[in-house]
Amino acid sequence: MTTDRRSGSRLSRRAWEASSAGSGPPGVSEDLSTTSDIPWPSDGAVVVVDNDLRVTYWSAAATDLYGLARQDAIGHRLGELYEIRWDHPDDERDAYQALAARGAVSGRNRHVLRSGRELRVEWSVRVLRENGGHQRGLIAGIQPVEPG
Asked: Could you read off the pLDDT of 69-120 as tens digits, one per residue?
């Protein structure tokens, strides 16, 4: 466990643990609390996607948050699982620009599930890189900020 710089709370390994494998996302070894100045949610869901935004890792907390089993999420594009609704017209563009410039970004928006249920969430996204420095995907920590 490490300390979240924003809130001082302890980061939980539970967010990293897959219920069946008992390990975190494949190939993710960095301590996410120290890879940038972007805060990491302390007990949120963890979702990893490849460069095509196809889910490659779906934590047990993601299953709890979205009501979607791991086997129903892996391999699907995020847009097939939920719709992201931004609060302001420029928020999406600004988030992608920050991600490109800094390799990490955080914010709030709404995730609308296939059932129509809407979740207000806080998230942090970081670029995952291969040893040669090429982007191989994104990792997101997500937690609800209002009851869904």
From this structure: 999 999 999 999 999 999 998 999 999 999 999 999 999 999 999 999 999 9
The two beta strands, 118-129 and 135-144, are antiparallel
Contact 63, 33 (CB under 8 A): no
Contact 35, 126 (CB under 8 A): yes
Quick check: 65 and 142 in contact, CB under 8 A? yes
Structure tokens at 45: 């869901």
CA distance 135 to 2: 25
Residue 132: strand, helix, or coil: coil
The span from the CA of 147 to the CA of 99, in Å, is 28
User: What separation in angstroms does the CA of 29 have from each of 24, 34, 52, 77, 95?
Assistant: 9, 12, 22, 24, 24
With CA atoms as reference, report the closest residue to 143 among 128, 129, 115, 122. Answer: 122
- In whole angstroms, give the CA distance from residue 38 to residue 27: 20
Structure tokens at 141: 């920590």
